[in-house]
Write a structure and sequence with these properties.
Helix content: over 70%
CATH topology: Growth Hormone, Chain: A
Order of helices and strands: HHHHHHHHHHHHHHHHH
Oligomer: single chain
Shape: globular
Radius of gyration: 20 Å
Structural class: mainly alpha
Largest sheet: none
CATH architecture: Up-down Bundle
């Protein structure tokens, strides 16, 4: 498979999770009305999805290290199809929760295994460029999904959003069946034995540099996740807009992610990865700081309230491709497992933000801005700690 096709297939797989996360956010009110539940209960359809995403992310990479990348991705897409159809037909709120859990358990495989597949194919600067190009395409999902979902929900009801996800999953199954290569030779696969699995997880989770690095990635994404999971309250409650106006939040995110990814890909060979990461983290911190100061001094309104979000997303997309390449390079013989642990921790934090943190903050623009600032500061501090630990280890050896 050539570079362009590989990028598009991996980006499409990575888009599935965010699409299933964001597309139904404008439907929260309609779901609550149909099932006679309040918004805090509807929020749990997102939290349960994210917990399923995080939990199964621990296993998809490991399974792909044992059975190969292609069969694991295809199996997960079939499971996602079942969850999508079930959600569209859910006769009660309990069934909707169940099928959202099924969706969550399966949605992360494409991203987790796709990262490992990418690292099977390319190394070094080429890997950083590939991740940047994937992010460029992948970043369309958070912008397109809520806009499409908002219009579908308005004109055809909230169930039509899940029928859209059904069609999307069928298309991905067909695409992967025809185009996705197997990149892990049988000779390179890990034995699926309990003691080997436990030893590999222990090796990853006791590596201080790796744990600090994946935590830095998770918190960088956490500032983004806070606004995503608070989208309905932020757009409708804080900004005073309608359910078809979600583009005011998601277009700055997509613009920032696209711009940062383009810059990363263009300068991958000219700027050292460490320098690109530092620059991205600095821009993230600057955006979060401006966001906090603005909300402290003024009443949130468009377009000013969303401009710092663009800056944050720009910096995040500059930093994350390099951070991911460096982190997965820690364990070159078990990239699937390393990708699993990284994605699981990232999505577990997303789930915690969605279910616990967002409900405490989403009624206030200032509190959301402070949450983003804390996430950016933690990300920068943890990344510095991971690199300091790496340098200390090299000095000792």
């Amino acid at each position: 498979m050539n570079y362009r096709k590989l990028t598009l297939v991996l980006a499409a797989l990575a888009m599935l999770g965010p699409f299933a996360t964001d597309a139904y956010l404008p439907s929260f009110h309609r779901i609550g009305v149909e099932f006679s539940v309040d918004q805090s209960m509807v929020q749990q359809t997102l939290s349960l999805y994210l917990f399923g995403f995080a939990f199964m992310s621990l296993f998809w990479g490991m399974l792909s290290d044992s059975f190969g990348r292609r069969p694991v991705i295809l199996a997960s897409l079939i499971l996602f199809l079942i969850g999508s159809v079930g959600s569209a037909l859910a006769p009660s709120f309990s069934w909707l929760l169940f099928f959202r859990l099924i969706q969550g358990c399966s949605a992360g495989a494409g991203r987790v295994v796709g990262q490992a597949l990418a690292r099977d194919c390319v190394q070094g600067v080429q890997a950083q460029r590939l991740f940047a190009h994937i992010t460029m395409v992948f970043s369309l999902a958070p912008a397109l999904a809520p806009v499409m979902g908002g219009y579908l929900s308005s004109y055809s009801g909230w169930r039509s959003v899940f029928w859209m996800l059904t069609v999307l999953s069928i298309g991905l199954i067909a695409l992967c069946w025809r185009q996705l290569p197997e990149t892990l030779p049988v000779a390179s696969r890990q034995p699926l034995k309990l003691w080997v699995i436990l030893a590999n997880y222990a090796r990853a989770l006791t590596n201080g540099r790796f744990v600090l690095a994946i935590s830095a990635i998770a918190f960088a994404f956490g500032g983004f996740a806070l606004y995503i999971s608070s989208a309905a309250s932020f757009v409708i409650g804080v900004l005073g807009l309608t359910e078809t106006a979600f583009a005011w939040l998601f277009l700055p995110f997509i613009g920032g992610m696209l711009g940062g990814s383009i810059l990363n890909a263009r300068f991958a060979e000219k700027l050292a990865p460490a320098r690109m990461i530092r620059l991205g983290l600095f821009i993230m911190l600057a955006g979060a700081t401006v966001n906090t100061v603005y909300n402290l001094l003024f009443q949130a309104q468009v377009p000013w309230a969303v401009m710092p979000i663009f800056v944050y997303a720009f910096g995040m997309s500059m930093a994350l491709p390099g951070m991911t390449v460096v982190t997965l390079g820690t364990f070159p013989t078990m990239r699937g497992l390393a990708s699993s642990v990284q994605s699981a921790w990232q999505m577990l934090l997303f789930a915690t933000v969605s279910g616990v943190v967002a409900p405490l903050l989403f009624d206030s623009g200032l509190l959301l801005a402070l949450g983003m600032l804390c996430a950016a500061a933690l990300s920068a501090g943890l990344w510095w700690g991971s690199q300091f630990r790496s340098q200390s280890t090299k000095a000792c050896t």
